[in-house]
């Protein structure tokens, strides 16, 4: 079968949508299908009707027997045999209501879901958001474990990084709050940010925040890490900061942490992220508005390495227990 | 710097343009910039769709990138304030093919409107670019003639030239490249009817459309040359394809009005193989010269057969022309280290 795996993306970004697209492509090819992975650019927050129309106008019907569409507005692409696998919908990052765009996009969303052969969500939280937005509740199909590309073994010198932020950072990634919390934590707490950022100003802000802290508390790399570099950092870390409110970014981060045997520290305001962990057992949920609570969580990770290790192990086991790609393909393509 | 390479995608087709885009991204990253390619599906039929395709590109939005490098129609129409064009080709149905009466647009009542829209969109988009480059002189000529814009020619480099050190001068002519109508492998199979020397033709490359390989094999069967023609339509690993090139007696590459020198030409020259091409093969004639780098003959089976016979009956000539082809190619010194800074300037 000729299958197109379509997702929207910001150029040079990362996130669950890219992980799923890659994973689907590999799994489908392994099952003998011909596959094209199609990443269509999107910029949320402006000209959304125009962009939505563009997604609908791109011709896919002749060249593909089936389309699997992921991140909105890829769900709007037109094809007679379309399967949707959606993360949470945040209303396209804010739509100006005055020109009727919000209503028209909501109608387009519902139409797209009705036109699809099958509709899945990546989490219960995402399914509920889609129910609220489009009036249809997708089935839940959790993403399989990502390829274990990261080294799970601890570094020989022990895990000296209390929490690693693998980036990339956006304004809502919680780094400002974590930096504020570092003023309250025990002196041995170290946070390492290594992910780069789409916006250079975010990097400058982090650099300024790092500069006012005692040396060594907030380690800061401007460049995005290569896979071996990230693996080395993971091997030194006790936990991974996955604080994005956007579940597409947060879930990818949580699953990568679990694949490396590390617990994730997640944003309590991201329901999909909270759904993915068992608080205190496979990860930690923190309220970003409570600096003292963030500091307390970091302090406990620093003081109780065995607790951190046990959570990481439990996270890895939970991830391994999740259905694999064969189950995903059965759900999407099965009779 | 964050760089996005924008390319058009014809699903399940992989050829020189796709290889160029991949190699470009690889070399941008090697130069220390963050880079990736987005390939946007393109369907050119029916002709009325072209307007939607162009408008869709204009309606897409980009964020978080400092530089866009556009390669092919219509993906290069996506707006960005810092766009550089390295043009592989425009939609030629609206340009030279229209003028020569070969354009499919001529069959449509709205053809003139569509042609005008394509030209206007191209001119507007190109005029707003920071810089204009093309991969071959014929592409730059069309840009000057139809859009009134000057562009610098920047040939695409051969990636991994070390894979093509040359080797034996074996008993076959290699016709590599995508199996597509404009590559005219059929012409070479027809030529084999007239070839007298005991030489084989090996056609190797993935087919754009299902059934192409069987059609070519059927043609060889019908013409009674199946025992001397091999059609391998697999997507061959690069090392296997390089091995075929390194050990061929010579290469034959006879596309119709190609827009570039072409990877096949460059690989053959690097491997010190004489190249048989046609007088209407387009961009590769910027490099190839009749009697110097091989033979450039009219697109006629008898003429092609004569060229093949000359090389097959005189291996020393094949070797000498091949070595000259390598010298001519290497003298061009086409390389990424001079291209990347221009695209990022």
TrEMBL record, chain A:
Q: Does the keyword Transferase apply?
A: yes
Which Gene3D superfamilies does this one have? Glycogen Phosphorylase B
Molecular-function GO term, any one: glycosyltransferase activity
Q: Where is the Glycosyl transferase family domain?
A: 179-317
Q: Does the keyword Transferase apply?
A: yes
TM regions (residue ranges): none
The family database entries (InterPro entries) matched by this protein are listed as: Glyco_trans_1 (IPR001296)
Keywords in alphabetical order = Transferase
| Name of the molecule in the record | Glycosyltransferase involved in cell wall biosynthesis
**Which organism was this protein described from?**
Humitalea rosea
TrEMBL record, chain B:
Q: What CDD domains does this protein's entry cite?
A: GT4_PimA-like
- Asked whether the UniProt record includes rRNA-binding among its keywords, one would answer no
Q: Which domain of life is it from?
A: Bacteria
Q: Which InterPro entries match?
A: Glyco_trans_1
> One Pfam family from the UniProt entry?
Glycos_transf_1
Task: Name the residues that span the membrane.
Answer: none
Q: What GO MF annotations does this protein's record show?
A: glycosyltransferase activity
* Domain Glycosyl transferase family residues, every copy: 172-327
Keyword Transferase: yes or no? Answer: yes
Keywords, alphabetical: Transferase
Tell me the protein's name. Glycosyltransferase involved in cell wall biosynthesis
Species this protein is from: Humitalea rosea
**Phylogenetic classification of the source organism:** Bacteria, Pseudomonadati, Pseudomonadota, Alphaproteobacteria, Acetobacterales
